[in-house]
Design brief:
- By secondary structure, this protein is α/β, with parallel strands linked by helices.
- It has 21 helices and 16 strands.
Amino acid sequence: MIQSHPLVRIADDSLALACGADAVAAVFTATGCTVERVSSWGMHWLEPLVEIDGQGFGPAPPADVPAILAGTSAKAIGPIAAHPFLARQQRLTFARAGRTRPLSLDDYAETGGWAGLKRARAIGREEVLAELITSGLRGRGGAGFPAGIKWRTVAEAPGTRKYVVCNADEGDSGTFADRMVMEGDPFLLIEGMAIAAHAVGADRGYIYVRSEYPHAIAKLRKAIGLAILHIAPFQLEVRVGAGAYVCGEETSLLNSIEGKRGEVRAKPPLPALEGLFGCPTVVNNVLTLAAVPHILSAGGAELYQRLGVDRSKGTMPVQLAGNIRHGGLFETTFGMTLGELVNDVGGGTASGRPVKAAQVGGPLGAYIPPSQFHLPFAYEQFAAADALIGHGGVVVFDDTVDMGGMARFAMQFCAAESCGKCTPCRIGSTRGVELIDRIRAPTPATADAVASLPQMHNGRKSGRSREEELQLLEDLCETMQFGSLCALGGFTPYPVRSALKHWPEDFEPKA
């Protein structure tokens, strides 16, 4: 039997709310309990997750409240912090997850908050840049560019004004770590941006959030108001995007903040030299900036550098999603194999069927078959296998998935989201959809009507064989990869080529 009026802790992030956390909290309140809304632990398959005196119950619907209070609930999972999903993690970025109230300055300060910013101001800009480079921190958004080198470039660039911009346009399928930081630990992101501003000499910053994240937007705006004295004279503002996937690309994002069409800029010049409003600009994503306060705490850079493998340093918040039994956020050092993440940590598929593929790195990431699940989760190892880590999203599929259809979806997605600036992306993706449809068609394709016109002297006058169409698809992927202005068109070939390589039978003609 639990004490009559215990302190009950329930998450208030978007996923918990979607699973009915507010209704559960209301029932506990009605019974006389004190309910504290906290950040999420990241064990999403157990939401709504209730915590009383460190003991967990989940998933707990409102009807389960009497049994929880009576001590007879079948949803008891024991001490939350000792749960195997959490016990095997190495939490740095998400050290406060599940433990603190998102908008409590007291909770943040009592758990080490602002220590990194205070030390950064004490040791000076040059030392901050040196420590960031020493840590080996790389951008957690896509290419994995060293954050310290980017910051130093901005710091040394001439300009009367400089900016720090946070790319929080989290649009990849199966990713939610940015949202969890913004909704569960917003002061951490704010502190990371303030440290960046101090290091490069910026006095203003922007957090660019997609409009589909209303709870994150509201939390950030409240948190900025509460933290204003801690980060002054640095000024911070939230800008809301309209949901264009291409605005996750840094130059499209900068155009959007400036009120222009979300369209890719040609590079050079790099944003580090001519970015927002033509000024030197640091552009990092949420996970990169959220890692900075820990690194700038005493001894943090050396500790961070010792974690991981090769040039993949520190920890990575891996997001397990799709057809998986234990979906959620799992922060670990680089080096754990993909098979361990999917099968051991994630528990395999939720359907109970065999795993057919895991897509890592969002909708433009490669599909990885179980035969390659020995790959360590690290930048170099994935790159050697023609794959991407990207934002750390892992989407799992069972053996019922049609990989030819998924390859077609990649092209279709690129066509829908292209900004239209470059031909390989704009036209290539549309032609890719048509090409995959022809390859999978039950009857051979005839000659193209336009190409058959007499004035089309170089047009092909007969249909291509299936082998010729497959080769054309390879050629198209190569053109998109090396000819596109940004990663939207440049990375679309990854899912297409990987599906074609590992599951050629799924490209056979469909009746």
